[in-house]
Amino acid sequence: MFKKAIVSILCALLIVAVFVGVSLKRKDHIQTRRHTELSVKVSKDSKYAGTLKKVLAKDHFSGTAILVRNHKIVDSYSSGKKGAGNDSNSLTTSYEIDSLQKSLTAGLVMQQVKQGNLSLDDKVDNFIPGLPGASKITIRSLLDMSSGLRMKRLKFNGNYLTSKELLDVVLKKVHYIPNSKWSYQPVNYIILSEILEKITDKPYSQLFKDAYIKKLRLHQSEMAYDEDKNSNRAAGYILKNDENGIEQKLQKPSKAMVISEMGTGQVYMSAPDFYKAISCLLDGTILGKRDASILYSPKYSNSPNYHSGLYHSKKPTYRYANGYGYGFEDHVRISPDGKQAVVVFSNHQYLNNGTLKKTIDMLSKKFLS
C-alpha cells in the first residue's frame, strides 16, 4: 500500500515536471519569435541596398531604418547600441514611437465609427460633458487638432495612474479657445482615448493590442508601461553638445508619466511592426478603403495639412509624422496607399538638432516621388 502511494506521488511529480518543461519551452519559443521574426517580408535582391547606410552612417545614427516598396523591405540599416550593454540595434529592436502613436489611435476611433458606436460628427459632451467647449467640439476636430483645446505638458511621478485620475487632471488643466486656428495639442488624443474607453468599456491598451498586435501578428510591439517586457527594447538617450563634447543621458520616465501619454506616445514598436500597422490602416486592410480615405484624406478635413495623426505632403504626395520624447526620435514617410515608405527610429534624441529629420526629408522626396 505504502509503495503504491510512493509510486503515485512520483508519477504525479513526473507529470508536473513534464508539463512545466513544455510550458517553459513554449514560452522560450514565443520569446525567440518576438526577438527574431519580422512582420514584413524582406526583398532579397534590391537596387536600393545600401541606400540607408550611405545617408545615415555619416551622422553617427543609432537606431533602425527601413525602406519599403510594394509592402516589402528593400533596404534596412541598423546601427548603435540598444543600451549600456553590448547588444546592438537590429531590425527587431523596438523603440518608443512617441507621437507616431496618434495615427494608430485614430484608427481605433474609426473602428468604433464603423461599428456604429461613434460618429465623427458627435459632440464631445455626449461622452465627457465636463470638458471645456465640449458642446462645440466634434470627434473629427479632435482627430485633426482643430478643437480649440490647449494644455501645457503634464508631469506625473510614481508608478500608478488610472484613466480616471488622468482625466480629472486634464479637466482641471485644459483650456478651450473658441474659433481658434489649428494647433498641435496632444490633449486631443488623450480625450479621444478616454472616449474610446467609455464607449467600449475596455482599457485603451486592450483595444490597441486587439486591433494591431493580435490581428496583425506583430512581434515587437507593446505598451511602454507593460510589466512583462517581451520585446527587444532599446533604451532612449538625450544627447546634447557641451564644452566637453556630446553629453549622453539615459531617460527613465516614471510609469505614471508614461501612462499619462494615453493614446499619444506610450507604445514600443519595431520599425517593421509600425510600418505594417500604419500601412494596413492606409490601404484599407483594417478599415476598408472608403473609411481609411475618410480618416486620413485632406478632402474630408478642415485642418490645413494634419489629418488623424498624419501630415500631408504635396510634392511628392505622401503622409508623414515625427515623434520626439524620452530619448527617442522617430520618423515615418509613407505613400497614401501604404505601399511605399521610409521608417526611421532612433534611440538618440539630439536636443536642438534637426539633422536626422532633414536627412529623412531629402531621402523621402527621392524615394517616394
| Helix-strand topology string | HHEEEHHEHEHHEEEEHEHHEEEEEEH
Which secondary-structure class do the elements indicate? alpha+beta
| Neighbour order of strands in the largest sheet | 2-1-15-14-13-12-11
Based on Cα principal axes, name the global outline.
globular
Helix content: 25-40%
How many helices? The count is 11
Topology:
Layout: H1 2-36, H2 51-56, E1 63-69, E2 72-79, E3 93-96, H3 101-114, H4 139-143, E4 149-150, H5 163-173, E5 175-176, H6 187-200, H7 204-214, E6 221-223, E7 232-233, E8 237-242, E9 245-250, H8 255-259, E10 267-270, H9 271-282, H10 289-296, E11 306-307, E12 310-313, E13 318-325, E14 328-334, E15 341-346, E16 348-350, H11 355-367
Give a quick summary of the entry:
The chain is of the alpha+beta class. It is built from eleven helices and 16 strands.
Describe this structure in words.
- The chain is 36% helix and 20% strand.
- The chain is built from eleven helices and 16 strands.
- The chain has a seven-stranded antiparallel sheet with strand order 2-1-15-14-13-12-11, with helices on both faces.
- The radius of gyration is 23 Å and the shape is globular.
- Strand 1 and strand 2 (72-79) form a beta hairpin.
- Helix 3 (101-114) packs parallel to helix 6 (187-200) and helix 5 (163-173) packs across helix 6 (187-200).
- The chain has helices spanning 2-36, 51-56, 101-114, 139-143, 163-173, 187-200, 204-214, 255-259, 271-282, 289-296, 355-367; strands spanning 63-69, 72-79, 93-96, 149-150, 175-176, 221-223, 232-233, 237-242, 245-250, 267-270, 306-307, 310-313, 318-325, 328-334, 341-346, 348-350.
- By secondary structure, it is α+β, with helices and mostly antiparallel strands.
